[in-house]
């Protein structure tokens, strides 16, 4: 087989003052016809820069220093802009992580696909339309006639990504570059998109360069794998050997850090509940006017569950399942329409605003986005002591406690006098945990607390939570979309779908003998499920 | 922040110009101990015609250079004080509207719009005409016509900061709403307010000059606008009488605008310098 793309000793320089001189250093690899090459690495490893260099999309100040990228006997890095333009779309196509921002919000899907033909001066108007329709059909979008007249905001995330793929495939490119195309999608949608890419590869025989941070995805689709770290390739090989027999320490650590779905031993749970949710309901109403009916979304629909003292309950569901609303209702950031939230004998859902402020400390929350959850203009110390001092804890005591908590979460007491921007995402999340603990809560709600972090950082934060669970016998309601993460930390798992509680049970029950179809679907969609399974159960 | 500001050529030029104007305003009584109203020579002396009067004399034989220096005091004072007053009205109103939403927002914004529908300058003229034209009333009139944009800006900023997760975290910490607004939200809206304030000083100086030009200035204080207004009738024979105060206004306003732009770029590095990767 001949290589579609050969990259030789590619080096990309960063502007002065960046954290390292080169974004990508001395990287070489081939992609053969019909092959899927996965480029794996954590954020900042230079994997996206490599792809952008190929497409000529490097940001200002970043430039190719040396190396070649041979595609059809031409070096795409050195082509004049006009020829690059002809090549882009026609021979090399790219799909992006966030389909909402990659599509033009003011253009109909059909027009956007036709535009690809127009840009390359192909076909007549009616022919373009017909081809767009064919493509929409090929990527498996439902009701193609309607879809090509739809605007991007009318499509779901998965449908948008399919539309992006249709655009990328329009001119039958020989190479498809996919930059984290499934990261923003739900597991079940992700599984469908991966399958679509596999099918198209088979049907069209194109080469795919697939950039991802998720080894689960690698296990699903890769033929060849290269692992990048800080701009250098640290490991390469075919998928099976890299996954089962990693050579480099970094690969091993990445693989270890992946939540594999290895089930923890069931622990004995106490009978006293830390949180009791009874018949909770929350409905959001939007729109509604003279001529439009009100749109109602039952975000939380008659849900009841309990979290025992010292238990970690995982709350799992896809986006829009109402799991976050449930969490926010439990801390009363959102006031429920009906039902009870009992914490330590008090019904948080029924308290008045004034009373609530006094009882706030009972339930605390760790937020998803480590960058938005800390006030950029406030020192860590005051973020940690504001709440306790407000409750009447003397200042010295609160500050001593804050320092102690910073030690516990592994940051050291001297972090207290610094500002949030001096910390990395993982460190900020530790601060978020310390802030929650400072209030001495009976229950912590962690809303996607590790989703925004790289796998190795994610593993560290999970370790911390597990450690805290033991040491402080914390009760945690752990909200996540990732079943693998839930399996690592939780005692029991609750599955939500469309605002309803579908299934709740011990982790091993949910994983090994799920009772509901939906739970089974979720489990089957977890990327790399088969691979993880074989790792776990020694034959 | 300071480093980014300093590397901006335009902004540094603005700072130098503004500091020069401030220094001149401050030392005016030292160089021109007679004050701006004293007649020192015969009228209509051209610049450099007589030693010691580098900018000539006006229609009554007063020293133009002295008038210019004293005028700087009035212009800067009015610009600064009226901006501070405008901020004192606009920031709290906008913050309350943005933070509490609902009826508070509706009420505050209708009130703001009421002021915005009347042309700035017309309202200022009416206000000054109703009150006695003194420095205080002019300053207040300028503040009253220039606070609405502040209120709208602060409202928009507060609305966007309000939805950030750290505000939720502060609510969970049991902090009261006023405290969250003052301690958590407002500090995060400071940078656009500073930028806007620096540009507002410039607008206020222009407004004051326009009012004085129309003869609505404080008759007891020398200002650049008054100088231009008084020289209007002799513009063809004595160009320097309107030219130099005009230049002074241009330089000061330009300096403030440059500083405003520089601050804006320094606060939002991602908008000004792309591709830092």
Give an account of the 3D structure.
The complex is a heterodimer of chains A (539) and B (277). With 539 residues, chain A is of the alpha/beta class. Helices cover 38% and strands 25% of the residues of chain A. In chain A, helix 8 links the parallel strand 7 and strand 8. With 277 residues, chain B is mainly alpha-helical. Chain B has one domain: MetI-like (MetI-like fold, Orthogonal Bundle). Helices cover 72% and strands 0% of the residues of chain B. The interface between A and B is medium-sized, with 35 and 20 residues.
Summarize the main sheet of chain A: 6 strands, mixed
User: Assembly type of the shown chains?
Assistant: heterodimer
Largest interface: A-B, 35 and 20 residues
- Classify the beta-strand content of chain B into a percent band: under 5%
- How many domain units of chain B? 1
Mean pLDDT of chain A comes to: 84
Mean of residue pLDDT values of chain B:
88
What is the CATH class name of the largest domain in chain A?
A: Alpha Beta
Q: Tally the helices of chain B.
A: 12
General form of chain B: elongated
Q: How many discrete domains of chain A?
A: 2
Structural class based on helices, strands and sheet pairing of chain A? alpha/beta
Q: In angstroms, what separates the terminal alpha carbons of chain B?
A: 18 Å
């Amino acid at each position: 087989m001949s290589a579609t793309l050969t990259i030789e000793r590619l080096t990309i320089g960063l502007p002065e003052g960046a954290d390292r001189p080169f974004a990508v250093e001395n990287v070489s690899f081939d992609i053969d016809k019909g092959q899927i090459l996965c480029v794996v690495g954590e954020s900042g490893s230079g994997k996206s820069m490599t792809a952008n260099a190929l497409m000529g999309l490097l940001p200002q100040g970043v430039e190719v220093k040396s190396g070649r990228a041979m595609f059809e006997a031409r070096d795409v890095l050195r082509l004049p802009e006009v020829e690059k333009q002809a090549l882009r779309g026609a021979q090399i196509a790219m799909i992006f992580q966030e389909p909402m921002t990659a599509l033009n919000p003011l253009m109909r899907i059909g027009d956007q696909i036709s535009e690809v033909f127009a840009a390359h001066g192909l076909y007549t108007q009616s022919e373009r339309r017909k081809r767009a329709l064919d493509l929409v059909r090929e990527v498996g979008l439902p009701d193609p006639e309607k879809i090509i007249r739809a605007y991007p905001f009318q499509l779901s995330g998965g449908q948008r990504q399919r539309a992006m793929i249709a655009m990328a495939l329009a001119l039958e490119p020989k190479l498809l570059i996919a930059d984290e195309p499934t990261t923003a999608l739900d597991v079940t949608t992700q599984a469908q998109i991966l399958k679509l890419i596999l099918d198209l590869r088979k049907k069209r025989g194109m080469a795919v360069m697939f950039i991802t941070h998720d080894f689960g995805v690698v296990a699903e689709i890769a033929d060849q794998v290269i692992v990048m770290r800080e701009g250098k390739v640290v490991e390469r090989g075919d998928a099976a050997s890299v996954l089962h027999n990693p050579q480099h320490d970094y690969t091993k650590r990445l693989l270890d850090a992946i939540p594999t779905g290895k089930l923890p031993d069931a622990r004995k749970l106490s009978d006293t509940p830390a949180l009791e949710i009874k018949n909770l309901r929350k409905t959001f109403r939007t729109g509604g006017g003279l001529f439009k009916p009100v749109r109602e979304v039952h975000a939380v629909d008659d849900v009841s569950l309990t979290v025992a003292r010292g238990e970690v309950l995982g709350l799992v569901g896809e986006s829009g399942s109402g799991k976050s609303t449930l969490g926010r209702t439990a801390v009363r950031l959102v006031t429920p329409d009906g039902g009870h939230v009992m914490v330590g004998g008090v019904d948080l859902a029924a308290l008045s605003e004034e009373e609530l402020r006094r009882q706030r400390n009972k339930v605390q929350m760790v937020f998803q986005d480590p960058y938005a959850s800390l006030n950029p203009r406030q020192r860590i110390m005051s973020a940690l002591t504001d709440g306790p001092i407000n409750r009447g804890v003397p200042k010295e005591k609160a500050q001593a406690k804050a320092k102690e908590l910073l030690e516990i979460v592994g940051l050291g007491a001297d972090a207290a006098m610094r500002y949030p921007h001096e910390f990395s995402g993982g460190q900020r999340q530790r601060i978020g945990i310390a802030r929650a603990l400072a209030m001495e809560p009976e229950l912590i709600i962690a809303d996607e607390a590790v989703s925004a972090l790289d796998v190795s950082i994610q593993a560290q934060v999970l370790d911390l939570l597990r450690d805290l669970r033991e040491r402080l016998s914390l009760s945690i309601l752990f909200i996540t979309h990732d079943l693998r993460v839930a399996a690592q930390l939780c005692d029991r798992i609750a599955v939500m779908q469309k605002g309803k509680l579908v299934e709740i049970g011990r982790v091993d029950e949910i994983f090994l003998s799920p009772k509901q179809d939906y739970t089974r679907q979720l489990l089957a969609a977890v990327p790399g499920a088969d691979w993880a399974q074989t790792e776990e159960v020694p034959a | 922040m300071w480093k980014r500001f300093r590397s901006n050529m335009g902004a540094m030029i603005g700072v130098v110009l503004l500091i020069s104007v401030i220094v001149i305003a401050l030392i005016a009584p030292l160089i021109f101990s007679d004050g701006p109203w004293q007649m020192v020579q015969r009228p209509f002396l051209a610049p450099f015609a007589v030693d010691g009067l580098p900018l000539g004399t006006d229609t009554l034989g007063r020293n133009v250079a002295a008038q210019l220096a004293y005028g700087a005091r009035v212009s800067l004072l009015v610009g600064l004080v009226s901006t501070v007053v405008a901020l004192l009205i606009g920031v709290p109103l906008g913050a309350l509207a943005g933070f509490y939403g609902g009826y508070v927002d509706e009420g505050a914004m209708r009130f703001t719009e009421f002021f915005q529908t009347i042309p700035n300058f017309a309202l200022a003229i009416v206000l000054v005409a109703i009150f006695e034209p003194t420095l205080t009333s002019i300053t207040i009139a300028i503040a009253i016509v220039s606070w609405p944009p502040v209120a709208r800006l602060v409202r928009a900023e507060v609305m966007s900061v309000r939805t950030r997760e750290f505000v939720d975290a502060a609510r969970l910490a049991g902090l009261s709403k006023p405290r969250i607004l003052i301690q958590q939200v407002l500090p995060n809206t400071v940078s656009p307010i500073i930028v806007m304030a620096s540009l507002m000083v410039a607008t206020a100086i222009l407004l004051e000059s326009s009012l004085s030009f129309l003869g609505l200035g404080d008759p007891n204080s020398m200002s650049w606008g008054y100088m231009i207004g008084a020289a209007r009738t002799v513009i063809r024979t004595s160009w320097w009488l309107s030219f130099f105060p005009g230049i002074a206004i241009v330089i000061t306003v330009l300096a403030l605008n440059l500083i405003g732009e520089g601050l804006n770029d320094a606060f939002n590095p991602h908008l000004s310098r792309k591709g830092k990767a």
